[in-house]
Amino acid sequence: MSAETILETRGLTKEFKGFVAVNNVDLKVRRGDIHALIGPNGAGKTTFFNLLTKFLPPTRGTITYQGTDITHERPAQTARRGIVRSFQISAVFPHLTALENVRAALQRNLGTSFHFWKPESSLYHLNGRAMELLDTVDLQAFAHELTVNLPYGRKRALELATTMALEPDLMLLDEPTQGMGHEDVHRVTQLIKKVSQGRTILMVEHNMGVVSSIADRITVLQRGAVIADGPYAEVSQNPQVIEAYMGSADTELQGAH
């Protein structure tokens, strides 16, 4: 039985003045999966994400979300459909507390983000839900801590909470464990698994240990094109994938079991 496809790209291509960054990519993401997009540096992963979120228009090809062609939609329209992206760089307000950051995201979801003249007390009704979200990512103890003071891994956890506040159907996570120490990587990996309940996640990730432990399916890009697609056990044995990662990453691929 094949699971429902939530997101599909067909022949998705992006060229920059003759350079093909994303080359004829066919991708299917199944509802409820954690789907990892991997590949060497310069493989086109972030450009592909930029096409999905409409930061870039494709040269050709189509993007279908829940059966609707969204190829030429504006970014805000796509976001309203429930496709929410978390960035490579931590995207939280440094001088707000963790609680205030989540509350701001909840407020955005209510459509009241521009009611600047309202007193802060008018947002207190969001505190309960904000604390629930902080609890989900193990940050309840940091609720009243200024975000600028949080360790890096906790900032990324907060970013997961603010992303979840927007109630996405599809979460796009761009390098969620980049720049983290081993302990933080493990914690954030477990959090991603936890928040994936009832959601679909498409993530760009370099860390093979992370990918092998939580991804249901993996798509490998090289020079903008798909060279492999399938479960980790299958993809990690693919000669083209091993060659693409060469040497150090080849052992990384093998060693991540």
Number of domains: 2
Portion in helices: 25-40%
Within the largest sheet, what's the order of strands? 6-7-8-3-9-10
Record field, number of beta strands: 10
CATH architecture of the largest domain: 3-Layer(aba) Sandwich
The shape is globular
- Distinct helical segment count: 9
Largest sheet: 6 strands, mixed
What would CATH call the class of the largest domain? Alpha Beta
Q: How much is the average pLDDT?
A: 88
Structural class: alpha/beta
Roughly how many Å apart are the termini?
27 Å
Helix and strand run: EEEHEEHEHHHEHEHEEHH
Computed over alpha carbons, the radius of gyration is 19 Å
**Fourth-level CATH superfamily of the largest domain:** P-loop containing nucleotide triphosphate hydrolases
Primary descriptors:
globular; 257 residues; alpha/beta; six-stranded mixed sheet; 36% helix; 9 helices
Describe the structure.
The protein is of the alpha/beta class and 257 residues long. It folds into two domains: 1-82 and 168-257, P-loop containing nucleotide triphosphate hydrolases (Rossmann fold), CATH 3.40.50; 94-166, no CATH class. Helices cover 36% and strands 25% of the residues. The chain has nine helices and ten strands. The chain has helices at residues 45-52, 75-80, 98-110, 127-136, 152-165, 182-195, 208-214, 232-235, 239-255; strands at residues 5-16, 19-30, 34-38, 60-65, 68-69, 83-86, 170-174, 200-204, 217-222, 225-230. A six-stranded mixed β-sheet has the order 6-7-8-3-9-10, sandwiched between helices. The chain has a four-stranded antiparallel β-sheet with strand order 2-1-4-5, with helices on one face. Strand 1 (5-16) and strand 2 (19-30) form a beta hairpin. It is globular and about 55 Å long.
